[in-house]
Every structure is written in structure tokens, then in C-alpha cells.
């Protein structure tokens, strides 16, 4: 059995994947940890102490079939660059981001049970890669997605209940100026594609 409370000084990488681990909490002096892999475990909810990993850059949570929520204060991970929660089929919400967070570059919620994204997603101002394919219950996207001015990759393929893409509320000519890869393949409920004309990424 893996200990509930761990204390590993100076460790930069921890990988505990595809096992029956049900709980992970942060011990003292783990401020050097940069990479944490908890893929395929049995964790239902992450301990709030996870936000004490002040140096964490990469957080892998994929294929956690029991995971239902992410920590509310995940925005306190000021050095986090990559958050992967793909295949977390019971994860129904992404926490609010009440402040600007410029460190996060990659967010993958592929195959999760996400129903909607909060308007505060626009505070992820450094985000470059947003991966949302096969989110079968995702119905809408917030207008604040246009605040992701560094976004280069957006995959919504297979989001069969997505009914609309937000129009740009300000009529800005550079809605998603850095977008290079965009997929809505398999979005069978999406009937209006006029929003494509507002993206203006085609000029670059």
C-alpha cells in the first residue's frame, strides 16, 4: 500500500500510474516537484494540499475513471504548464479561474463529462492548446474563449451535443489570431457555422 502522506525532499518527478491508488496528499518539503503522473489510478477527488506543489509544471490525471472534480484552487499552481485529464469520464466540471493565469499552456479534457466551461476560462491567458474532443455532453462554449489570444490548437471533434459556438461579443477582427488547428468534426448538433467568418485566423 502506498502511504497516504508522503514526504520526499528534493524529488522532481513522481509517477504512480495505472494502479489502485485511491488517495494522494502532499507531504512537507515537496516544493521541488515538477512532474506528477497519477494516470489510471482510482482517485475520486484530489486532496486540497495538491495546490502546495508550487513548482509543479506537468500534471497528468488521464484515465482516472473515478475522478469527479479538480481542486477549486488549482489556479494557485502558478508554474503549471500542462494539465491532462483526458479520459476522466466522470469529471463533469472544470473549476473557476478567478484570476489571470498565464503559466498554463496545455489543457486536455478529452473524453470527460464536461457539460460547459465557465466564463472564467478566459483567464487562462497563456493557453495555447485546448483539447476537448469526445466531450459528449458539452453543449456550449463561453464568449470568454475569445480571451485566449495565444490559442493555437482547439479540438472539439466528436462533441455531438455542441449546439453553438459563441459569436465574438466585441466584433473584434482578431478573435483567435494564433489559431492554426481547429476541429469540429463530428459535432452533429452544430447547425450554424457563421462563427467561422469571425475567427480571422485565416488571414495569417
TrEMBL record:
The keyword RNA-binding does not apply. It comes from the Eukaryota. InterPro entries: LRR_dom_sf, RPS4B/Roq1-like_LRR. Residues 80-202 form the Disease resistance protein RPS4B/Roq1-like leucine-rich repeats domain. SUPFAM superfamilies: L domain-like. It holds the Pfam family LRR_13. The keyword Transferase does not apply. PANTHER family: LEUCINE-RICH REPEAT-CONTAINING PROTEIN 57, OS09G0267800 PROTEIN. This is Putative leucine-rich repeat domain, L domain-containing protein. Keywords: Plant defense.
Amino acid at each position: 500500500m502506498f502511504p497516504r502522506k508522503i514526504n520526499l525532499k528534493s524529488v522532481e518527478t513522481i509517477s504512480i500510474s495505472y494502479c489502485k491508488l485511491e488517495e494522494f496528499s502532499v507531504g512537507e518539503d515537496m516544493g521541488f516537484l515538477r512532474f506528477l503522473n497519477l494516470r489510471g489510478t482510482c482517485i475520486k477527488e484530489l486532496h486540497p494540499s495538491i495546490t502546495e506543489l508550487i513548482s509543479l509544471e506537468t500534471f497528468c490525471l488521464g484515465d482516472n475513471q473515478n475522478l469527479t472534480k479538480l481542486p477549486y484552487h488549482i489556479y494557485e499552481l502558478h508554474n503549471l504548464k500542462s494539465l491532462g485529464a483526458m479520459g476522466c469520464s466522470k469529471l463533469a466540471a472544470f473549476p473557476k479561474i478567478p484570476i489571470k493565469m498565464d503559466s498554463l499552456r496545455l489543457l486536455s479534457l478529452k473524453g470527460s463529462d464536461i457539460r460547459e466551461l465557465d466564463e472564467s476560462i478566459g483567464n487562462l491567458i497563456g493557453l495555447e492548446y485546448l483539447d476537448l474532443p469526445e466531450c459528449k455532453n458539452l453543449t456550449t462554449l463561453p464568449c470568454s474563449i475569445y480571451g485566449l489570444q495565444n490559442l493555437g490548437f482547439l479540438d472539439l471533434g466528436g462533441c455531438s451535443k455542441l449546439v453553438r459556438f459563441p459569436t465574438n461579443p466585441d466584433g473584434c477582427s482578431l478573435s483567435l489570431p494564433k489559431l492554426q488547428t481547429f476541429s469540429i468534426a463530428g459535432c452533429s448538433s452544430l447547425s450554424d457555422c457563421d462563427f467561422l467568418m469571425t475567427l480571422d485566423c485565416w488571414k495569417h
